[in-house]
Amino acid sequence: MSVNIPELNHKPLLVCIGGAHSSCGKTTLAECLLKRLTGRKNGSWGAIKYTQTAFYTSLSDAADTINQSDKDTTRLLSAGASSAQWIQSPRHDLEEILSIAINKFWEMDGILVEGNSPAEHIDFDVVAFVFGEDPMKIKDSAKRALEKASVLILRAFPPDLNHMPYVPLSCGVKTCNIAAYSEQWDACCASGENKVDWDSCAEVVMDEIIRKEIENTLTGLSQDGRISCAQARKAAEALGVSYDKVGETANLLNIRITSCELGCF
Fold first, then answer.
1. Which one of 57, 179, 188, 209 is at 20 to 30 Å from 203 when CA atoms are compared?
2. Residue 158: inside a domain, yes or no?
3. Is position 218 within any domain?
4. How many domains does the chain contain in total?
5. Residue 127 covered by a domain
6. What is each CA distance from 92 to 38, 48, 97, 112, 239, in whole angstroms?
C-alpha cells in the first residue's frame, strides 16, 4: 500500500510473480497475495498478466476478455485486484507495452505482475519465484527472473541448494519451504495428493513486501540521512506496523530519527 504522507511522492509498490514453468502455481500465489494486499486498509492493487506470443502484441482490459471464466485475469480480479490487464507479446516487444500497462495503474497502491519476462524490463520492489515439484526443472525464459528473486517458493528443500542451477543465494533472499509449513505434507505425499500450503508461502512474501514498503517510505522521507520522529510515527501508522519495526529498518538503512521526545524510537 502507499503511504498517505504529503511530503512523500507517490510510487506504487511493484511486485512480480515468476515461476520455473507453466502450472507451477504463479497465479495461485498471486491470488493469495492479492487477498492480503487489498485487505490492508482497503488497498487498491492493479494486476497484470503476461503471456508470451510468437508474433503479435496486444494489451487488453476489456471486460469480455479479462472476465472470461477460464482466464487467469478473472482469478486475479476475484482475489481482489481493482482492475486487471492482459499483455500478449513476444519478449522483444514487451518493454514498451509493459510500461503502458503499468502507467495505467500508477495511482494505485501497488501493481502485481505475473510472468517471468517483465522482470527483465522493470526494477520490481519484490520478485517471488515459484518452483515446481521438480526443483531442477526450469525453462530458459525463467532463469533471468530467478536471478532477481527476493523470495523463493519451493515444494521442499533439495539436499543441497548450492547444487540447484541458477538459484540466487545472496544475502537477503528468503526461501519458503512449503513442507516446513504443512504438518500434513508427508501424508499428502504418501497418498499422492498435491497439497500446497500457499497461505503460508504468501505470508513469507507479504513479510518481504512490508519490509520493502518500510524501506521505500523511510528512504523517500529522509533528508541527509535523517527523518523526524513525527514523520517516522506517521509512516508506521500509515503502514500498519510497529514503531519498533520502523526503528529497526531505519537503523539498517543508517537513517537517524531525530527530535524523538516520546521515546518511540
1. 188
2. yes
3. no
4. 1
5. yes
6. 32, 18, 11, 21, 37
Task: Encode pLDDT of 228-258 as tens digits.
Answer: 998 999 899 888 899 999 999 999 999 999 8
Q: Tens of pLDDT along 46-84?
A: 999 999 999 999 999 988 888 888 889 999 999 999 999
Task: Give CA–CA dist 153/220, Å, rounded.
Answer: 30
Cell, residue 135: 526443483
User: Which band of pLDDT confidence, cut at 50, 70 and 90, is reported for residue 259?
Assistant: confident
pLDDT at 136: 79
Q: Please provide residue 54's backbone torsions phi and psi, each rounded to the nearest 5 degrees.
A: -85, -35
Burial class (CB in 10 A: 0-12, 13-18, 19+), 237: middle
d(CA 60, CA 56): 13
Q: Which residue is listed with cell 499483455? A: 87
Strand-pairing partners, residue 60, are: 86
Asked if residue 34 is part of any domain, the answer here is yes
